[in-house]
Each structure stands twice: as structure tokens, then as C-alpha cells.
Amino acid sequence: MTSLGNPPDDALRDRPGLGSIPADHAGSTLCRLLAAHPEVLDIEVLGQSELPGGAISYSLGVLLPGGRELYVDVEDA
């Protein structure tokens, strides 16, 4: 994973001031919540796809202490 690499809409560009960039979809909202957690070391958007009906699906990889990894899928319906 790369240093908070390109979260949706660059939602974490200013990580310390998470309130400065509006979260307009599920991917950026989830990235904001995860980035605010003190144990999250890194977040990477692994994939993004548009589903029928206009929903967008995001796959996120989250690096935790001790080399643990968490993979999360979220859909903005």
C-alpha cells in the first residue's frame, strides 16, 4: 500500500483537517472515518466500479499495526 494513495475524490488530501473537504459518497466517507482512527497506518483504493443504476462500488485496503491488513468493500447506492 502507498501512503494514503489516492482515496476517492482525494478525500484525505488534508488528513489532519478531515472536515475541510466534504465527503460526498460512501468511499470518501469511509476513508475519512478510517483515516481518523489512530491505528490506521495507510489506506489505498484498490478498485472502483460503477454498478447498474448508478451505484458506485469501492474496494479499500487498510494497513494496521503489526502488518495486519483489512480489505473493505463499500457501495454508494
Low-confidence stretches: 1-21
User: Per DSSP, what share of the residues sits in E-state strands of 2 or more residues?
Assistant: 25-35%
**Radius of gyration, Cα only, in angstroms?**
12 Å
Count of distinct strands:
3
Helix content: 10-25%
Number of helices: 1
Describe the global form.
elongated
The averaged pLDDT comes out at: 75
- Judged by helices, strands and strand pairing, the structural class is alpha+beta
How are the strands ordered across the major sheet?
A: 1-2-3
Distance between the termini: 27 Å
Report the sheet with the most strands, covering strand number, pairing sense and barrel closure.
3 strands, antiparallel
Order of helices and strands: HEEE
In short:
The chain has one helix and three strands. It is of the alpha+beta class and 77 residues long. The N terminus is likely disordered.
Can you give keywords for this protein?
32% strand, 1 helix, disordered N terminus, 77 residues, three-stranded antiparallel β-sheet, alpha+beta, 13% helix, elongated
